[in-house]
Amino acid sequence: QKQGFDWYMRKEIFEQPTAVADTLLGRLNDRGELVLDELRISPETLRRINKVVIVACGTSFYAGLVAKYAIEHWTRIPCEVELASEFRYRDPIVDPMTLVVTISQSGETADTLMAIRHAREQHAKVVAICNTNGATIPRESDAVIYTHAGPEIGVASTKGFTTQLVACYLLGLYLAQVRGMKYGDEIAALLGELERMPAAIQGLLDNSQPVLDLAAELADATSVLFLGRHVGYPVALEGALKLKELAYIHAEGFAAGELKHGPIALVSDELPVFVIVPPRGRDQLRDKVISNIAEVRARGARTIVLAEAGDEEARAVASNFIELPKVSTLLQPLLAVVPLQLFACELATVKGHDVDQPRNLAKSVTVE
Ligand code: F6R
Asked: Which candidate among 8, 93, 143, 228 keeps its CA 20 to 30 Å from the CA of 320?
């Protein structure tokens, strides 16, 4: 069943081109409009909502953090993202004008389920993004957008995450379309770019040997830092989470702009630092991230830089350079996360850990 792979997780990482393509399938009608047939909430209702609140846990929460950038940028609707475990305990402000979006691969996570029950008691509309047909969370939601990743067996989520990102982008674009914020050509251009992502992910997978070599080299690291800005920040958080849960290495993700507000004190020649650089065209952000890399390098850290192919300024400050295909900023997480998944999988393999069943973890967390 692992089809020649050593772990389900590795197989699932390699299934991402298909999983992403399947989640995008059939989204454009013959009038060039984005269709989300399964979203059984009327356009009128979607035009009335004045706030989006995303609730999720773990990796799914990080997908939600990425979604906030896309949804706010495309729709201008304020969007909050909250850990499901925190949500109902702070008496959150939700009402019938709030669209609550819940993201759960398994559809059974207790914290997330409790959060949506609370939201529905306040009469909010709830949309679930879920990978499991008929699971409890989609059953208890007003509507559901299924990701088509296929079963995810490895405890650590990989294709679950990338397909959640796709579903979030689709939802954001659909809201923009329904509310007249984006029109045919723009939607078609963004969908066209999404449709090129499976091939781009495949390219990263085909050229992943340097990432695997790096994992072997860094097997003795005791702590690893991940830095990113904008949508690269949630990717940094996800890279750190994968490393913690699989390789049992202390890892932290930070917003690169926060470096000088504290984390830089950790930097030394013992600390590998991964940095996700925004694509060119986002030069203000990109320049700042590149100077952050120079700062950590000046303190002796090994810098592993993920940046757009041909970004020579990023390459100049990199101890190791991981090339990402050209993509617009909002979609970059779909690509940038892939080498980080592989790195964690490989490092855990090198250390002799059980990648599919990390210690102390369960695939679905059905208690609060
Ligand atoms: C990390 C991971 C977990 C899950 C989290 C939510 O690799 O898999 O952090 O993302 O437990 O699970 P779902 O998405 O099933 O609600």
From this structure: 8
Residue 56 has pLDDT above 90, yes or no: yes
Reported in sequence order, the residue ranges of the chain that DSSP labels E, i.e. its strands, are 51-56, 79-83, 98-104, 125-130, 143-146, 223-228, 250-255, 273-276, 303-308, 320-324
Query: 157 C-alpha to center of ligand 1: Å?
Result: 6
Across the strands, what pairs with 227? 254, 275
User: 78-89 pLDDT, tens per residue?
Assistant: 999 999 999 999
The answer to whether 38 and 144 have CB atoms below 8 angstroms apart is yes
Atom of ligand 1 lying closest to residue 112 CA: 16
Q: Please state, as a whole number, how many other Cβ atoms lie within 10 Å of the Cβ of residue 28.
A: 16
Please state, in angstroms and rounded to a whole number, the distance separating the CA atoms of residues 248 and 241.
Answer: 10
Burial class (CB in 10 A: 0-12, 13-18, 19+), 157: buried
Q: What is the predicted pLDDT for the residue at 234?
A: 98
The per-residue pLDDT for range 119-175, each reduced to its tens digit, is 999 999 999 999 999 999 999 999 999 999 999 999 899 999 999 999 999 999 999
| 351 flagged as catalytic | no
CA of 85 to the centre of ligand 1 (A): 13
Interval between CA 309 and ligand 1 midpoint (Å): 31
Ligand 1, residue 109: give the atom nearest the CA.
16
Ligand 1 close to Cβ of residue 60 (< 6 A): yes
